[in-house]
Task: structure prediction
Amino acid sequence: MYRNFPEAFFTRRNFLKGMAASSAILAINGAPSLLYAGQPKRGGTLRVSVSRELKTLNPLRHVNLSEYMQGELMYSGLVKLSKDLQPVPDVAVKWGSPDAVNWTFELRKGVRFQNGKELTADDVVATITKILDPATASPGRKNIGPIKEVKAEGKYIVKIITQYPFSFLPQSLAYPCMKIIPADVLAGSYDTLATKGYGSGPFKLREYVPGTHVILERNPDYFDGDKPYLNEVQMLILPDSVAETNALLTGQIDWVVEANVNQLSRLQKDANIKLDRIGTGQFPTINFGCDSRPFDDVRVRKALSLCLDRQMALDMCLEGYGRIANDNPISPEYQFYHAIPQRKQDLETAARLLKEAGIKKGTTLPLYIAATPAVRGKLGVVMQQCAAQVGVNIKLQHVDYSTFLDQIWKKANFYVGWYNMQSCEDAMFHLLYTSDASWNEMRWNNKTFDAHVLAARQELDPVKQRAEFAACQQMIHDEVPNIIPFYNDFVTAYRSNVNGVVRNPRNTFFTIENIWMN
Result:
């Protein structure tokens, strides 16, 4: 069966200079009166803060929230995910397959890149081909599906053939790296994507200063009706959550995408600030290099998991804004979540397992921690305190985020990770856990696990699919390639004159084209 779907600039320097003056003005005059929200209105500038630096503007190479937002603002994909994690149209207006192998995607007509060129099936084919090329080193290569062949049939039809039946293809093609780029740019000036924009998204690049800001202006040729409503979006890099909160409270920014829970009590006192909270499958981890001593011994991994006080971790890291997890990357929001009896702190068993594995009391293990988000550092402290109770000395090694990406991520054997919810179970497993995973950070490389994931991929019977995914989750829980202590809630904060903010639990879709301001 075919599935058919209907068709005023701010800098850090200005911020620091203006903080006192702005606070004084608000104290004297009070907050300005606000209009009630009504029908969307055209105009205005949205100043949105993000905590992580953009390493590149090239969407095929994106790896963090800040980059995902910039990619969505400037580019379009074939499909997007709704807040219910269902695939919905972007450039593709409908799609389907008679057998989950041979897929057809029909494109919108008249969609134009910012250089005026019409987006056609040839651009989609060139983009997917580029992503699948190992030389591109795109995180999307293993995450957009087991694609065997992609070809154009005319200007507006894309044919995709998968290696085997794969019912998750539409969700997989919503991966944030899957943004359509003009074929001629990919062929002739690919390297310029790092600093320039060529997309068909709702906004166009005006200015990019690495480490500081990205400024984008409305794309008048955007294909989605009267959207976007905003004239301009300023993405501001503010890694300090206190400075970020002060800027929001004084009206110097309009939206904090990821509000720090330590700052919520301040924000809750201001009637001009709105807070939204949703449960998600986002989680931090303590990652083990499973191919290196001592973490190649499952007893060591399990012992460290058993010594962790998860309630303490949740309280200290998130102040309760989340749920205890069970060393399972699949949260209850997923379709095939498998409930497993909760692992609890057991210091006696942890000490016994460490002794059996030959780990002596006083053993020192360096744990690497990136500066952002701040939850990483807090989790490291909790892990350090808990491990000390069984005689393991965890030495915290703090590094800035850029150094973490360059020198620690996917290289070190013991570090704190941070991961968004994925579009489906298959996407999560192929991002982190299979032997050929895009990131394969733990280097677990379990062939039995790989076989279960492959069987689930090819299975079209949802009952049998559920059984395979349950086996996958049980194996991760039992063998502990990483510790997953809790799932965190998203809390986003914005000023009350900002309308249309909708957070997606996947945390890679922001729909800023729907936002408007009073």
User: Anything to note?
Assistant: The two ends are 45 Å apart (CA to CA). Residues 1-36 have pLDDT under 50 and may be disordered. The chain is about 30% helix and 20% strand. The first strand starts at residue 2 and ends at 3.
